[in-house]
Amino acid sequence: MKRFFALSRTRHGVLDLATPGFVALLWLGRFPAWQIILLSVFTAFAAYTAIYALNDLAGVAVDTEKFRGGINPGYLIEASQYRHPLAQNMVSYRSGLLWFAAWFTVALIGSYLLNPAIVIILIAAAVLEVIYCLLLKVTCLRTFLGGMVKSAGPIAAIYVMDADPAFPLLFLVFAWVFFWEIGGQNVPSDWNDTAEDKRVNAKTIPLELGAQKAGVIILFALGLTVTISLFLHQASPLSLCPIFPVASAIAGVFLLLKPAYKLYKQKEGRLAAKLFDYASYYPLAQLGIISIFVLFK
Prior knowledge:
Radius of gyration: 18 Å
Shape: globular
Distance between the termini: 42 Å
Number of domains: 1
Largest sheet: none
CATH architecture: Orthogonal Bundle
Mean pLDDT: 93
């Protein structure tokens, strides 16, 4: 099973659960019924497990070509001898496809039970993920699709809590996740994989624009992330000012801006992987902060 969970990057996927969890608590202002919590967590786990597996399934041909010369050890949260098991022939394509189909089916059923509108969000995320993978050799602008896919989970969480959410607040949350994914996950990930991507003439921001501009883009995106976080309290019925924005900003400075600035100054690949790791814990920090407010309101 380790190989299949590596296919779905389960350790990373579990951390990703913090993002919809945070957004749900922020939006609702309280813990929902335990039945909703259990179904939501299981559905979200199934969805992240399926979409991460789909990433490797859609990109297996290029990944196999990329990693012939070896796989960069990369990030601590994904460090494993089973990393990219399809590309290493540790899992057959048929088995990987069945694994994806099973979890995606579970996610679809859970989504329908929570709110049928979420089914559309899940299918859209899967389609965008495939397009994202297919554009690796076409354009570095595919990073925008990555931001949209990662935003699907938190947006779905809002629709679990609210059948008719206000669009401006919905867009606020979308923008926050979108820029966090680009600056803290997508571009640093491509930076870490520069050597492998060169082998297949991939079009990524670090390769197309260079380290200097990639560093600027990361800082700009994460600067927007932290700035937007100062206004997230507007999406909550809780009285969160002024402590929440301050706590949120502190988490952003230490987990996003500080490692991003270090990467920008030194431009070392290992620092891109370190930024990726730190940024992966940012939603968990936000979940911890909002949980304190919910518990002690």
